[in-house]
Amino acid sequence: MQFKDIYGYDDLKKGLIQSVIENRVSHAQLFFGAEGSAKLALALAYAQFVSCQRREADDSCGVCPSCRKYSQLMHPDLHFIYPVATTKEVDKKPKSTDFIAAWRDLILKTHAIFSIQDWYNAAGITENKQAIINTEDAGEVVRTLSYKSYESEYKVLIMYLVEKMNVQSANKLLKVLEEPPSKTLFILLTEDSDQVLGTIISRTQLVKIPRYSDQELKNILINQHNVSSDQADELVVQCEGNIAQALALIDGVGQRKAVGANFIEWLRECYVSGVQRKVGFYPKHVQRASDFAKSGRENQKFFLTVGLNLIRSVMQQHVGNPNLVKLTGDEFVFSEKFKVFVHPANAIAFYDLFQEAIYHLERNANANLLFLDLTFKVEVLLGQQKA
Ligand SMILES: [Zn+2]
């Protein structure tokens, strides 16, 4: 990560760079920024700058051996520690190193902008309450830092969310902060400085990292994530500068649209097979039912719920309530066409059909049979004439 990869924060970047150039890097720093600020990204860019072998005036070079290893998060003198818990794969004594592949992936995929929930999801941690920075983990890092650095002048430890340490871990950390191994840079990150022990705060230099302003967030969404100006305005209002939340919402919209497209395709198949009576659709239906069954309970419910909402939107078209129809693109075209087939005479039946399917799924019905059954019932309903 280079400073130039991070939008905005000009003054903050200048301050960090200046401290390195003037040789007054404080060995322990506490980066305090709410969820959805770029604190981890800035910590990574800063650490890369400190370690760069061909530093430029305003950024790391990006090409020296150190920078190349940093860009992959694979530098032997770069250490991470973050909250972990037991998972299916790591069923006892979880440590940060057990999760390093998921950690690197998440950072590279999101450019280091994510929420703690995103981290739990990526790590497969379902019991969020138990996720902490535990004593063994803290102990291992302290040991590692007591060795000499491998390649760089500095060893760097980035700790993601200091407030997730238990008391024993915090005491271990305090000890090293009091007698720090030479040439070691601790970058501690927190989202809630009120929860960080006062003794830790007093031994670190505080760097406050604000969230983006509404205008900055809007620019990022439009320029880096291809969001339309209108959609960006909406997201800005909802997310109050929390870019992690804005990106999660975009992801959600993208996912919903993909599922909606899949639903529409299925409905078209039902129409062609059930109403136009074209033959040869049975294998297709069977395949779809099998795919549906494999997709997992939550995705199955999501598919049916998205479908239910689409049908509801078509109904709104029908009763001439265009203000309630919030469809765009393909979904709008779909609703225009399908309003002939979803009408007052069968709308309730459609509604009940999907509600019932969701009800049975929640009670562990066989998803394969349920979907096939749904397919045939939808075929019949689509053929039903207007009253
Ligand atoms: Zn470099």
Can you tell me about this structure?
The protein is an alpha/beta fold. It has 2 domains: 3-210, P-loop containing nucleotide triphosphate hydrolases (Rossmann fold), CATH 3.40.50.300; 245-383, Four Helix Bundle (Hemerythrin (Met), subunit A) (Up-down Bundle). Helix content is 56%, strand content 6%. It is built from 16 helices and 5 strands. It has helices at residues 10-21, 39-51, 65-71, 100-110, 116-123, 135-146, 167-178, 198-202, 214-225, 229-239, 243-274, 282-294, 297-318, 329-338, 344-362, 367-383, and strands at 28-32, 78-81, 155-159, 184-190, 205-208. It has a 5-stranded parallel β-sheet, sandwiched between helices. Strand 3, helix 7 (167-178) and strand 4 form a beta-alpha-beta unit. The model has no long low-confidence stretch (mean pLDDT 89).
